UniProtKB/TrEMBL annotation:
Domain Glyoxal oxidase N-terminal intervals: 45-433
Record protein name field: Galactose oxidase-like Early set domain-containing protein
Domain Galactose oxidase-like Early set: 442-545
Keyword entries, A-Z: Signal
One cellular component term from this protein's GO annotations in UniProt: cytoplasm
CDD domains from the UniProt entry: E_set_GO_C
Domain of life: Eukaryota
Amino acid sequence: MVKFLLLAPTFFIFFPSVMTQTIPSSDGSQGRWRLLHANVGISAMHMQLMHDNKVVIFDRTDFGPSNISLPGGRCRIDPSDEALKIDCTAHSILYDIITDTYRPLMVQTDTWCSSGAVLPNGTLVQTGGFHDGDNVTRMYTSCPDDICDWVEYPNYLSRRRWYATNQILPDGRIIIIGGRREFSYEFFPRPSPRRQTFQLRLLIETREGNVENNLYPYVHLFPDGNLFIFANTRSILFDYNQNRVVREFPRIPGGDPRNYPSTGSSVLLPLDENEHSIDPEVLVCGGAPRGAYQQALRGTYVRAISTCGRLRITDQNASWVMDTMPIPRVMGDMLLLPTGDVIIINGGQSGTAGWELGRQAATRPVMYHPSNPSDQRFSVMEPSPRPRMYHSAAILLTDGRVLVGGGNPHIYYNFSDVFYPTDLSLETFSPPYLSTQYASIRPVILSVDDTVSPGQRFLLSFSVGEYIAGSVLSVRIVAPSFTTHSYSMNQRMVVLRIDEIIDNETSSSYTLSVVGPSSAEIAPPGYYLLYVVHSGIPSSGVWVRLQ
Ligand SMILES: *[C@@H]1O[C@H](CO)[C@@H](O)[C@H](O)[C@H]1NC(C)=O
Ligand SMILES: *[C@@H]1O[C@H](CO)[C@@H](O)[C@H](O)[C@H]1NC(C)=O
Ligand SMILES: *[C@@H]1O[C@H](CO)[C@@H](O)[C@H](O)[C@H]1NC(C)=O
Ligand SMILES: *[C@@H]1O[C@H](CO)[C@@H](O)[C@H](O)[C@H]1NC(C)=O
Ligand SMILES: *[C@@H]1O[C@H](CO)[C@@H](O)[C@H](O)[C@H]1NC(C)=O
Ligand SMILES: *[C@@H]1O[C@H](CO)[C@@H](O)[C@H](O)[C@H]1NC(C)=O
């Protein structure tokens, strides 16, 4: 009876986005949502998974009291704060995956719309923000005794970095690119004694007046050591050492911008060491048509972009190959999952990024399967019970779940009388591969060398209930991302070369001899999550440190 009602035509009229999909599954074949906490006190605007399985989360300091107090009666006193000059609430928390608990952290200056990257030694470096925070660098280092907190370095940056993108480099430095009205890049650590910035013409040329449409540029480190930088509709291969454009690629077809506030997203597809030569491919999906921002200000929320462009840059005449997502999406997050698939999650189906400018939450994530035939690349997942609009975020967790939080399309923490109230919850999405029906073929990592060196062999043992002979077995490392504004900085996956599989006969366990990534350009040094994937089903991740 219920099914019949759901299939009645009126249902489609009221919920056009559901038209092409089946009704929600209960068997986990479209994944599962779970609410972890209805209220963690802040809105998860920026998120970074650390190698101690804790997640650093923060929003901003200049929009009034959050719902979690600073510990020990501390307060933040900021005469220049427009919303609250004495603020005794926290705007950052540390979420512990294992215990499913969280505690407040203290940020002194404004982290709004900032960027970050994790150093090879595991310390998170966050840069910039707004107002008194716009040239501050902050560091967070994990500690075993749970008292560690942010340390701030005021006036560290040479320019204000608000809506910039960071990328970890092969030598362990971080490059910080762009920001609102800043058409330049600089490095962490800064050279001494003098700070240095370098102009980036692409950012000047792609800026569209006050709307911009080129903020939070998509930056991917390529195996040849150059950076791929995408802004608006254009993209270049860039040699940051010599401040030189190596190549410019064709504009993405369709003519519509893909960067903030026409926020789409982008990933570098997995780099596969088993290929004869590594063939990097970039995927850019979603966004909002040119003019969407101005139209939204006038109350017209235009349909988001539904196309993805995929660029294989080693082709001499590289050109974008276009695909159409089953659901249009602006402000969608794109994450590489342990299987090598890409999940496109969060965001809206119309309007654009910015205060109150998004509409029609895109509650159903979509999975993109990069190696499927072109007409079978997408599958649609179970809808989230909560909209996740502007200032929401998603990251991959150690065990393969996706952590989703945030949503704050207002100047303040407004919980009523607004479209899409500020959301303080955290929830997880478990992709179909986590379904218990795969328990017998899910690999379990028993041991692995915890340090991996470029090009060096290391051993890894795993067990599996039922080994499917001839099925695809792979070992993958994933760099956890710094995610904000629908873009996951530093995210990358390398499929490692397995050069021997030893069957331990008696114990249904196997030992693999695996070769570390062949260079720091393919995988910069740092902490990675390592997964064994057997027949499409990933193990839980274990942390390895790449030298
Ligand atoms: C959080 O919100 C609840 C419910 O509105 C309120 O009772 C509590 O005082 C708030 N806590 C803080 C620290 O703002
Ligand atoms: C990592 O390096 C940074 C910069 O040198 C330093 O401030 C931080 O304390 C280091 N972290 C660890 C865990 O050693
Ligand atoms: C940023 O740094 C510059 C140069 O050190 C300084 O003059 C300026 O006041 C700083 N801006 C803020 C907002 O602190
Ligand atoms: C690339 O394009 C140029 C100019 O259109 C053409 O001459 C050349 O043959 C193309 N190369 C390949 C490999 O398609
Ligand atoms: C949002 O919150 C602010 C600060 O609490 C308040 O001044 C404003 O009226 C609220 N806006 C709406 C639409 O409720
Ligand atoms: C499996 O065999 C390898 C190589 O002989 C050995 O190093 C490893 O300890 C064995 N693992 C288990 C779980 O028996």
